[in-house]
Amino acid sequence: MRVGKLNWDDLKYVIDNHRGLKREEVRISNGIGEDCAVVNYGDYECVISTDPVTGANENIGRIAVHINCNDIASCGVEPIGILVTILAPPTATLEELHNVMEEIHEEALNLNVEIIGGHTEITEAVNKTIVSCTAIGKTNKNSAISTSGAKIGDDIVVTKDLCIEGTSILINDFPNECRAVLSEEEYKEAKEYVKSISVVREGIIAGRVGVNSMHDITEGGLFGALWELSKSSNVGFKVYEQQLPITNITKKLCNRFNLDPLKFISSGSMIITCSHGEQLVKEFKKNGIKGTLIGKITGSKGIVIKDDMELEVDPPEADELFNI
């Protein structure tokens, strides 16, 4: 099989046909584009998400914490705890495991999150260390925001710059190739990208302001996330390529590795849809967060405007990272 996520049709079949018994306490179940489950506990809801890190070799502990806490934040909810599973090959050293857990510990402290459980195992079933986390958040009843809430006419806002995570992975896993096309200042700047892959602050701000839907941009990049959001909400979208926030550093590296930045893993950015995009961007700016209006939610089809041409966005395939 092809490396990366299952294609959209295969994944939808697997999810739709293997859900177990439906429980009345579960208000929202995971699904295509819906990264969190929401379970009702009376006056409160528990928000839960889980994800592994498989595409990176460096900073895997940091990335694992953030991609899972980002999912919780995409519901407008603050994460409170994580469970950590580490599967390491026999070639791993105790020092390497300590380093991974130190990264997880540091990022958990930064996010005010407690490490509440997990599992660590040495196994021949993997050829490199895999870290998978489950994150948990708590909020008031019926207040968690879903991916499926986008409405026709909504503004589409993205936070920070696209491809933050992907660029960070390239810098750490392929340093020599990156140095060949970046200046020393650019290289040092890109090394800092890993510190920006959390979207917890903007998720909580957006939840407070009030928005219709949120989705963090992970594997498959912007186009993958927009596709998932549109299918989850049964809507379309129209975005403008010239308005998409991509740094020159990222553009240089994508050219070097022949990658499409719009299909490149982008933890650190979030898609938000709402009726008051400009107001939301101003609120982000007041809090030191970059927000960019990139388009609108429409009635059907996913469209990107490029050089005054309307191009239809195809269903997401494997992330560009796996093409290296």
Summed up, what is this model?
Residues 33-138 form the PurM-like N-terminal domain. The chain is built from 10 helices and 13 strands.
Task: Provide a descriptive summary of the structure in words.
The protein is α+β, with helices and mostly antiparallel strands and 324 residues long. It has two domains: 8-140, PurM-like, N-terminal domain (60s Ribosomal Protein L30, Chain: A), CATH 3.30.1330; 147-323, PurM-like C-terminal domain (Phosphoribosyl-aminoimidazole Synthetase, Chain A, domain 2, Alpha-Beta Complex). It contains ten helices and 13 strands. It has helices at residues 8-16, 60-73, 94-110, 164-173, 175-179, 184-191, 200-209, 221-233, 248-257, 277-286, and strands at residues 26-28, 37-41, 44-53, 79-88, 114-122, 130-140, 155-159, 213-216, 236-240, 270-274, 291-298, 302-306, 309-312. A seven-stranded mixed β-sheet has the order 8-10-7-11-9-12-13, with helices on both faces. A hairpin with a 2-residue loop joins strand 2 (37-41) and strand 3 (44-53). The longest helix is centred in the N-terminal third of the chain and has 17 residues, at 94-110. It starts with 7 loop residues before the first helix and ends in a 12-residue tail after the last strand. The model has no long low-confidence stretch (mean pLDDT 93). One of its GO terms (molecular function) is kinase activity. Residues 151-306 form the PurM-like C-terminal domain.
